Amino acid sequence: MTSIFSCIRRAALTAGILFAAVAHGKAPQVAESALHADDSQKRATEIILHVIDTYHYKKRPLDDALSARILDNYLESLDPNRSFFLLSDVQSFDRYRSSLDDGLRAPELSPAFDIFVRYRQRVAERVDFAVAQLRNSYDFGIQENFHFDRRDQQWADSEAALEEYWRKRVKNDALNLKIAGREPDQIRDVLTKRYTRLKTSTFQLNASDVFQSFINAYTTAVEPHTNYFSPRTSENFDISMRLSLEGIGAVLRGDGDYTAVQSVVPGGPADLSNLLHEKDKIVGVAQDADGEMVDVIGWRLDDVVDMIRGPKDSTVRLEILPAGTGIDGKSRVISLVRDKIKLEEQAAQSKVIDFPGQGRIGVIDVPTFYSDFAAQARGDSNYTSTSRDVRRLIKELEQQNIDGLLIDLRGNGGGSLSEALELSGLFIESGPIVQTKDAGGRIEVNSDPDPGIVYGGPLAVLVDRNSASASEIFAGAIQDYRRGIIIGEPTFGKGTVQNIVDLNRFVRNGGADLGRLKTTIAQFYRISGGSNQFKGVVPDVVFPTAKLGEDSGERSLDNALPWDQVEPARFVPASAPVSSFDEVRRRHEARIRDDRAFSLLMEELRLLRDANERTTVSLNEQQRRSERTALLLAQRKVENELRVAQGLQPLTEQVSLDAEPEEDADSGAADDDDDRFDPGKVLLQESVQILLDLILPAHRTAGINPAARPPAAAEKAGNNL
Q1: Whether 513 is catalytic
Q2: Which pLDDT belongs to residue 653?
Q3: How far apart are alpha carbons 329 and 634 in whole angstroms?
Q4: Residue among 234, 387, 467, 469 flagged as catalytic
Q5: Catalytic: 77?
């Protein structure tokens, strides 16, 4: 089981992490006659159906109901913003709604290619219309709005309705560039290239690309973490493994016409620079210090990844729309040097936060659950791992006479299962940590591998909506054992296990590469019986920031596996002050009501959320400028008040709309970390205060001894519960 988390992480990275290397070549356009399934794709379909039917954790029949979902998924993958297909097109595809299941079993895949050919036709028509619109001059003085996000809209019921959308889309794109300081000729040039590229890249999609999209419409109809990798995608996976995570260290995803940052990998150039963040949108890519910035709005995700690839120590410049600015916000340019993601930069780190008169709390930041498996395999007794590093840091902190310990798992997306077990074992004597149920219903109990306890004092665990997988196993175990208090936001909610299957292993005589299938094979359950799936770990003290991210994580995925439960394992909870959690929550709520920094943080997060959730913008230049300036001023005002609340100097720069994208330094290393505003510090300070609330003398007089060592847990339960 140890390597499964590693496989999950690497598969996710392959889909979006920006790895090093190749020049972006021009693929030839694909003739319509070449768009059909070949024998290898038909064979791959048969094997995929067999693997899912035999090994997938979720048993879902391939029937007419699933066929309807496959069709909807496929149309959404081609035209997520409903800006190309007409309602008449979609109605004509309804003839496939109850027959795609039969086609997969046959296998007869022609409907997928017929739909794609129609899609190519519509893209060509829309792009030709958009380019022709660039010959017009626009009146930005009239009052009209552009509804740019059509994901929840009905399909356009006429050619005229779709052309009206595209007229406004072109006008909006032109207005964005005008406000950014571009001249009319520059605007026409940039947009002509942008729209032409959209058409060109669509006509470069080959049969393998179409097959992968259609098969993934099927696999995600079963469950969202099951995906097919075409031979090309599989090759990129192999490249990423050979490159040992060289690149900038960012996981990307498609977001309509934009490429958005899904997460930043700890220890990578993006993370160390503090210049690229979750939900930033990449709108341009340039090579080296003086390369031309290429507009990538409307590009396929794979093509954007190819553009950002490059050798170690080379420079890539990205034009980004920072999270919270909206699609019409001011962009900026950042410069990053591609590098290997260093294990030591992902290592756990510690510090002490001292509250005079109350106590000293040790904080250990654990960005990922890592282990140097290669060094371990070589027999190196000093190999690096999360649990080893945390064990050492605990001893160092205890020498500094800490009164309590906080483990910070914010943004920790998981990693090694064995390390999650080892880390949990540092805080309990012995016993089960997590249960795993496979597709056959068999349950395995994974237990603390090293009886004994390293730290028995007051403990808190800080989590957020991006704490996932191994983080949820650790936090869930600490909560179930009542070994400490969990603070923050409900976690991501990913309680499933994936494995990558090479489809070629099912073929005896070789032949064409069939690709690979990432399939869900098991589900994790807490020792108390409930799953981390979907709900995640719900903290004992929930921060109000959770309300601004209720639709994030597993809960935001269509067709995600629901929460369920199994029989609890046998374990003995520790003697933790659970009865005082109500009092701690009361103190927390009273404190943040009067905490100006916390109120300002919530205001800033609401501003960012509102900007990201906008679906309509004005096409009146004066109104657009006023709205942008008001947003920038509001964000600056809140940030400056937060800086003052943290003892920092306010920023004095004037907000400006009439300028080319500003460029940031390539590393950010020159900035003083102590002078950089960090909203996360507000949450960390409050978390430390919550832990101190548990260990203040007033609580000790109530008969609570939080420093007492927890009793030994029961021996692990058997596999058959």
Answers
A1: no
A2: 59
A3: 14
A4: 469
A5: no
